[in-house]
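ENTRY TYPE: paired fold submission
RECORD: A
CONTENT: sequence, then structure tokens
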Amino acid sequence: MYEKIKNKAADDKKILILFIILFIFNIAFYINLFAYMVIIKELDITVLHDLVTIISAIIILGFISTRLPKLREITDGSVYEIAYLVIMGLLSITISYFNKSTNGESLWAPFLEMFRMLSVVLILTYIATKSKSFKSIVKGEFSRKTILWQIVICSVLGILASYFTMDINGAPANARGLVVMIASLLGGPYVGIPVAIISGTWRYFLGGPTALACGVSTVLAGVIGSLVFVWNRCKFLRAYKVAILMFLFSGFDMFIVTILTPKPDGILIANTVYAPMTFAAVLGMLLFTMFLGEKKEEVEISEELKQTIEDNSTKISGNIDITDLNTDRIIEISQELKEYKEKVDRLEQEMKEMRNE
């Protein structure tokens, strides 16, 4: 028991170290980006200001809204309703402010485009989860046939993700890294690394200024996801951990783009697609994690039902055997009683004859 806990702590420590390494690459990316902003001054820093303001507003509104249930417990309903109306008023004022002070269309359009692209990828992923191999993976059954089918299915999804791109201010963005990371976290190195190599190689031969960077980052997504799978004892990460992983990997992905793409194209592309692609990666992984949890519950319920049916069948079979045994014994006892009755009748007849004599 102690050895098991010790091994688990060691594996968790490895995952934490991996997160720290990815975080360092994120810091390097931010420094590289901000340095270019300050020195060259070709990037629009007002977008960063708008994003920080929006995030701050969301944090404040979220903090207030989470306190509403507590307010409902300690006060009457009217105070709670007034507080709720205040929240709605603040939200309306915030939205009105951003519509007037910022270019709302240019700010939100990339996220909406990524959301549309993400929906297509998730639909294709959902269709793929209907396969028998996916159900076997969920149950932890990694046969050669299952692994082969998952490699084929996930590789096709990874290739399709390279074509389902969104043009964000002239820079292409996609969810290929999300598909590869899902394959790695779900199927481990036997699935994730082949899918990453196939998808990354395909992306490289598609060409473009970011061909090398995108190919390398795709392969690294498979390696990182596979390591996390092994260190997490062949289990899918919990929702908050997988969200952190995707957030950190998005920054790591952009760092690779900045160093493997000729300047200033690499930094300009990273600045354009970083926020929308991070949004799509984190949201897509969270949605898949929720779906995977529901799928696991379905599989567990199905297995429990199957086991219950088997147990009941065994009991019924045993009861039938016992019933058959009891029936045979009853017949034997009835036959013996019949023989005893015949003997008694003969003895009574003999006694009558003796009395008559």
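RECORD: B
CONTENT: sequence, then structure tokens
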Amino acid sequence: MAESGIYGNFTETLFAVKKKLELQILAWNEEAAQRGEHKCFEHLTSRVKTERSMRDKLLRRGLEESTENALCRLTDAIGLRIVTRFVDDIYRVKAKLAALPGVEIAEEKDYIQNVKPSGYRSLHLILHCETDAPDFYGRVPGQFFVEVQIRTIAMDSWASLEHEMHYKREGGNRALIAAELKHVADDLASCDLSMQTIRNMIRKEEA
């Protein structure tokens, strides 16, 4: 039987894994509200990479356009972005992800402690998520990769702007634009630090 797209027969499983993880994460804010605590994050977005995007990425990486490569060589068929209000919430979310049953952090890239030259800041995690359905290799429980980006509202706003400018800017002013974007990124990071300090002061008074 011919495969139904780049994900073969695993498309429904990918959406199921995404939905399960999404519901677990959304429950954290509900539980925090019930306890009268601050919510863990501001908002959550998720997606399963489109057929075209996945094939384009495989091509860029020099990989054969196969289901195995899409699910097992690349790690972002499923993607989540979690946006927080404060920097320390980023690491709070990371700890809660690591504590979920059937979830393991397989890889971590901390672009907050190690800022990219462009000024980009975010915490990137690659998760191994177990599911009752078999994976590509027939293992049960199956394991699927999920890429998670966790960042503050300020970091997310900058990243959205930088992405747009990166793909749309033309002409000879690219170096100037890059320098201005870096300057803005540093300013926003300073604001994040100030907001974190203010929150810590408020919490100390409430204690």
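NOTES ON RECORD B: The longest strand covers residues 142-152. The helical segments are 11-34, 51-60, 67-73, 87-98, 153-168, 174-206.
STATUS: closed
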